[in-house]
Design goal:
Helix content: 10-25%
Order of helices and strands: EHEEEEHEHEEEEEHEEEEHEEEEE
Strand order of the largest sheet: 19-12-13-14-11-15-18-17-16-20
CATH class: Alpha Beta
CATH superfamily: 2,3-Dihydroxybiphenyl 1,2-Dioxygenase, domain 1
Shape: globular
Bound molecules: fe (ii) ion
Structural class: alpha+beta
Number of domains: 1
Number of strands: 20
Radius of gyration: 18 Å
Strand content: 25-35%
Largest sheet: 10 strands, mixed
CATH architecture: Roll
Number of helices: 5
């Protein structure tokens, strides 16, 4: 398998300061205090130099998903496979790689136009996480699981068949669950394809079969216990952020979580208790329910 984890997200924000306040005071992430010539701000959740790069922009949207290869040979092999399949890869220069704290990367689009950055050799500084809200740790891996990545993201891929082929056959992700959530009568069929990388997290990336504003359906960060989730929910409510979904527990990754809208409108899932899977003994599931309980949605407007 070529992709080890989702290492980082690059997010454009019309108000990076508001996003940073949300990231630190609500989510409990740490301001990485990195200098950036273009005015980006950085949030960290573990010993990676950052997991989220917030860049000043005219719109609030996902700019790129950073996918990590384990080493240079895996990265070169993947790049060659993609080029042979007709994809054009743009090589990042030294400055752009330094900005992402990676050894090297290439940029490409998936078949639905989502931007991906494939990289290897993240440069770690091992500064400890000091959460401004006292979050003890974010679940991004340990000595037993290896790096689990920052969490997960769901990308809009209206041409789901082409996207699924691209992610599974070229990038080497494995399918963990195919979800057909119950829809109101007359609504178009909705499908979410959950995929895992080469780590035990039940899904690192999922595909949604419709377009979606902001270029991402949601992104997820995970903490270590229910109390941390509850405290974040209290902080989000107290600060007046829109709670997109009440507390609930998902099928498939078992995540017990709520959803909150970040400034600018990107949905952030905040959860704990995500399933870790032994892929050698796993049979992908096909599901017709999204939740065991809860997750009552409240879409603004
Ligand atoms: Fe999720």
């Amino acid at each position: 398998m070529s992709i080890a984890s989702i290492g980082y997200l690059r997010i454009a924000a019309t108000d990076t300061a508001a996003w940073m306040t949300f990231g630190t005071e609500i989510l409990g992430l740490m301001d990485a205090r990195r200098e950036d010539a273009a005015g980006a701000r950085f949030l960290r959740m573990d010993d990676h130099p950052f997991r989220f790069m917030l860049e000043p922009g005219d719109a609030d949207e996902l700019l790129a998903t950073g996918l990590e290869c384990r080493d240079r040979s895996a990265w070169l092999e993947l790049c060659e496979r993609l080029r042979n399949a007709g994809h054009s890869l743009e090589e990042g220069d030294t400055d752009a790689a330094a900005r992402r704290c990676v050894t090297a990367f290439v940029t490409l689009q998936d078949p639905s136009g989502n931007t991906l950055e494939l990289y290897y050799g993240r440069r770690l500084d091992y500064a400890p996480l000091v959460s401004p809200t006292g979050v003890k740790r974010f679940i991004t891996g340990d000595e037993y699981t290896g790096d689990l990545g920052f969490g997960h993201a769901v990308l809009p891929t209206p041409d789901m068949e082409a996207a699924a082929t691209f992610y599974t056959e070229l990038l080497g992700l494995g399918v963990s669950d195919e979800l057909y959530p119950p829809m109101p009568e007359g609504a178009p069929e909705s499908k979410v394809l959950f995929m895992h990388a080469d780590n035990p997290r039940q899904h690192s990336l999922a595909l949604y079969n419709h377009p979606f504003p902001g270029g991402v359906v949601h992104m997820m960060v995970e903490v270590s216990c229910l109390d941390e989730v509850g405290r974040a929910l209290d902080r989000a409510k107290a600060a007046g952020h829109t709670i997109l979904a009440s507390l609930g527990r998902h099928i498939n990754d078992n995540m017990c979580s709520f959803y909150v809208l970040a400034p600018g409108g990107i949905a952030v899932e905040y959860g704990y208790d995500g399933l870790l899977v032994d892929w050698d003994n796993y049979t992908p599931t096909v599901s017709t329910e999204g939740d065991h309980w809860g997750h009552e949605y409240n879409f603004p407007g």
